[in-house]
Amino acid sequence: xxxxxxxxxxxxxxxxGISGMQSALDLAESGFKVYLVDEKSAIGGTMxxxxxxxxxxxxxxxxxxxxxxxxxxxxxxxxxxxTSLTALHGEAGNFRATLKQKARYVDLTKCTGxxxxxxxxxxxxxxxxxxxxxxxxxxxxxxPQATPSAYAIDKRGISPCRAACPAGVNVQGYVQLIKAGxxxxxxxxxxxxxxxxxxxxxxxxxxxxxxxxxxGVDGAVNIRALKRxxxxxxxxxxxxxxxxxxxxxxxxxxAVVGAGPAGxxxxxxxxxxxxxxxxxxxxxxxxxxxxxxxxEYRLPKKWVDLEVDLLSRLGVEFKFNTRLGRDITLExxxxxxxxxxxxxxxxxxxxxxxxxxxxxxxxxxxxxxRRVALGEPVTVGxxxxxxxxxxxxxxxxxxxxxxxxxxxxxxxxxxxAEITALPEEIAAAKEEGIQFIMLTxxxxxxxxxxxxxxxxxxxxxxxxxxxxxxxxxVPVEGSEFTLDVDMVILATGQQPDLSCLNGSIPAGNxxxxxxxxxxxxxxxxxxxxxxxxxxxxxxxxxxxxxxAAESIHRYLSGQDLKxxxxxxxxxxxxxxxRQAPHxxxxxxxxxxxxxxxxxxxxxxxxEAKTYTAEEAKKEAERCLNCAVCSECQECVRVCLAKAIDxxxxxxxxxxxxxxxxxxxxGEVFDPAGLAYYGYGRYPNVVTSIQFERxxxxxxPYQGHLVRPSDGKEPRRIAWIQCVGSRNLRLGHDYxxxxxxxxxxxxxxxxxxxxxxxxxxxxxxxDMRTYGKDFERYYRRAEEEHGVRFVRSRIYNxxxxxxxxxxxxxxxxxxxxxxxxxxxxxxxVGFTAxxxxxxxxSRLGVExxxxxxxxxxxxxPGVTSVPxxxxxxxxxxxxxxxxxxxxxxxxxxxxxxxxxxxRGSETRVKEYPPERPxxxxxxxxxxxxxxxxxxxxxxxxxxxxxxxxxxLPGVVYAREFLFTCSQDSVxxxxxxIHEHRLNRVVVASCTPxxxxxxxxxxxxxAGLNPYLYEHVNIREHxxxxxxxxxxxxxxxxxxxxxxxxxxxxxxxxxxxxYTEINKGALxxxxxxxxxxxxxxxxxxxxxxxxxxxxxxxxxxxxxxxxTLQGSDPRQYLNELIDKVLNHPLIQVFTGSxxxxxxxxxxxxxxxxxxxxxxLEISHGAVVLATGAREARP
Length: 1176
Known about the structure:
Layout: E1 10-14, H1 18-29, E2 33-37, H2 60-73, E3 77-80, E4 83-91, E5 94-101, H3 116-120, E6 124-126, E7 135-137, E8 139-140, E9 152-153, H4 160-164, H5 171-179, H6 183-191, H7 197-203, H8 207-211, H9 223-234, E10 253-257, H10 261-272, E11 276-280, H11 289-292, H12 301-314, E12 317-319, H13 330-336, E13 339-342, E14 348-349, E15 362-364, H14 365-373, E16 383-387, H15 391-402, E17 407-411, H16 423-431, E18 435-437, E19 440-448, E20 451-463, E21 472-475, E22 481-484, E23 487-490, E24 494-495, E25 525-527, H17 530-533, H18 538-557, H19 597-600, H20 613-620, H21 634-638, E26 651-657, E27 659-662, E28 667-668, E29 685-687, H22 688-695, E30 716-723, H23 739-753, E31 759-764, H24 774-783, E32 788-791, E33 793-799, E34 805-810, E35 816-821, E36 823-828, E37 830-831, H25 834-843, E38 868-870, H26 880-897, E39 924-929, H27 941-949, E40 954-960, H28 966-978, E41 983-988, H29 991-1004, E42 1012-1016, H30 1017-1023, H31 1029-1049, E43 1063-1067, H32 1071-1082, E44 1086-1091, H33 1112-1124, E45 1129-1133, E46 1136-1143, E47 1146-1152, ...
Helix pairs in contact: 1-2, 1-26, 5-6, 5-9, 5-20, 6-9, 7-9, 9-20, 10-18, 14-15, 22-23, 23-24, 26-32, 27-31, 28-29, 30-31, 32-33
Pfam families: FAD_oxidored, Fer4, Fer4_20, Pyr_redox_2
Keywords: Iron, Iron-sulfur, Metal-binding
Protein name: NADPH-dependent glutamate synthase beta chain
């Protein structure tokens, strides 16, 4: 390392598309450490989504893949994916950048990219990379050739169903596992947090369903029925049921008082942690209200007994008929156990205080249900009234019907809108003939001969509070009436019976406990469930037990009871609905089948049926996967590398850099708001980026040209230009630069993909073909490929009955025309992305009215903030060649700024020792590339591979979809080691970009890089013989055979190194030449600038103003002055280079000046000799 003179030798490049990668590579090769940051999980930007590039029709992936690999493997480029720049402090040369790194949930250092995780992941969502045409899993690789090649997990908060579950059960997780047919795994997911899946699958009040986003679309997912299905399926084979592992036994013991849902839930969680747990229960059976408070027709006892038995199998000890206060005391428990959990429930009925409550025939609802559940003899009257409107009231009424009551009434003091029972319970009661008497209160119970005979009632009206609270029933004067009954069941509430505490805890109606930790005022004593909150639901009690178990564990471990715990899900963490409601296909919930009411009232047989497997799958498929990743843990189960970490947290990183290059790119315009095009309504109207993915071999249709609606091959395709560009109403008055050319390219390439005749039509306003060879490309498309061009304005696009699309348009002469097409492609323009705008605002970088970065017209790449530079589409719409040029320019500006720190923070790559192979017989490895479908659709690649295997000297041959991708490169290196290869042949596309890549692979594998041969079967076979696949295949075989024959004869070449002349020769003294000379000189290099004219300036000397109103002559004069006065620049005007020779790094040129000829030495040459206007 060298001294940096107080300037940082590192650079931050924000955005890792082709622009960011080019800047990063230029800088890294120039001696600077680069932090390459991108918000996505892999680098590549938009270019990696394209099928081909214009005007050469090269495979986009073939061009960009070496950049991906070089960037990913460069020693001095640190790639930071899932990362964004949040703050920047300091000044040019010394910045402090704050980066936010979103959790990837996959360890990059461990992931092998095998894809097993994605294979088992049950969650499928739209694939943004394919612009929504395909799907991907929640754990995914952005694209097959992604760099880094590791997977990432998409998490978007906590699903609302899971957030609404008091016990925190992973609802989305088990629903997705049911969808995938993994029923036991679904049960395990539920059982992790809730030991009663079968019970809750029948009687849970399902707050998860109430929170389901689908409820606002076409009905919530029937989550409770799915839970029941998973449990019933899992319990079909109890012997193979995978119960959770229990930790190593601990010495501490815990007493749980009460075998209801709260107590049993706590016991379950504690026994898993290795504690000895004893549950004390006053009743002869376990289950609490689940066992003695919920009727058999809703919850058969066998399910309660089964799930209690599972707790016994895990190690929970039960002591029945043991009442607190009678058989044991709190003090005795505290002496014998290290902690106590009180979960005594709320088993005492609350009475309304109506005169006559003590008459024979007036029953308490809780005791009534208990006696029925325990099999005690119970007699009901002929006319039964149940007072109350909760689930207990419904249970009492429906039980009375089953016990033989003739008429049963529900008497409730409010309206049905305020009734607290579940809607399905109310509906079932009505189906069974139970009558509802609303807005009615009992005034007194009237007896005759010591027996209840009627109820005196009064009608109510509701009085609504100003604060919007629950309305209060107010008696209506003079509305009294009587109701003849011979039995009343009071179901007006319940409360805990705390007499068992004998005053050991000061308590009123409930036990006082911390609402979060459930700790009481007595050390080591905790309380939860109904005895703390008053009567609530089964799932609330289960949640309380789970919370108490964690608190007890912390207490016994000496930890703080609250630190680091989340007792409620913050609203901002709950995942919103990802789709607009109109985008979700309608699909009504599948109802649970119930027994016919006339049959079910005859006894206590379970009334509801469990879903079939097909019904469960269909219902689970309705889940919208709001949080994307469901955390079902399937990926963890199959990952042998142990790379997945669902607990990974977002992080923050600070880095010191000397300069920043902003290359965050832009966004493609979303045409959904332009209703007249039909995008988003008609499936066969697609955007240009979607069409690129249709054509791509790695796209949703593997490169087959089909339309989305029905998979048919189109016969007529239309392109509509300037969608989202040149539109004043949208505020997009600019041209997006690339749309004309990519539409021509797509129209030409589509014909190559079509198996039959294909008519392609481009509707345009103006055809802008201003780049090198662009006009020729346009003419060839029209004249050679038959692309039809129609100058017009589009009126609208409408869908026909057959899915085709009718385009109405106006010709320049005013004639209105209409045509029908199979597919319509909208040529969408670029927009400045919202995130890029926010980034610019955060850093104080000026933008233009459209949101693109504002530059000085004569200094493209230089932003309004010193030390911050920009490139790519962030600086305005442009094509790939212009993007790459601008990216290198931005890197050049940085190199000038930080030249003093060059090499101060970089490392030098070290290669392993070269294996001596000169005495070994040739062991050739042949690797043949499909190049997506660019080669594979013409050349029969497997046939070529089999042919190669039989060639002399070949010991290994293999095919790849893309040989140049990061994972393929690593695989080739691995094959060299495993098969002891000492020579390599790669048959793919151009050696211009790919040969250096593979030669470097040989060096990394310990082979001499010159023991390599490259075969260009893309250009020499599949391209030139596209219509003759047999000939193309045979030619590819010949080319491979020749390459193998040649590589067998190759011998290692020893590289020699020589000093590089650090001077440069710039030929041409126009603005380009002078700028290049000044850039090199400011980086400390000696420059010789040669201009054939007598003065500097070139064509700019004849310009007097620009379209933006700038003065080019003032700029030119200032530039000339800087060049002439720079000590490292020697200017030769009126001079020419007459002779040149040498080799890279050491050239010798003879220059003829007006005075004499002289010879100069230099290591590099820049040709900036300008051009003349084209003349017809």
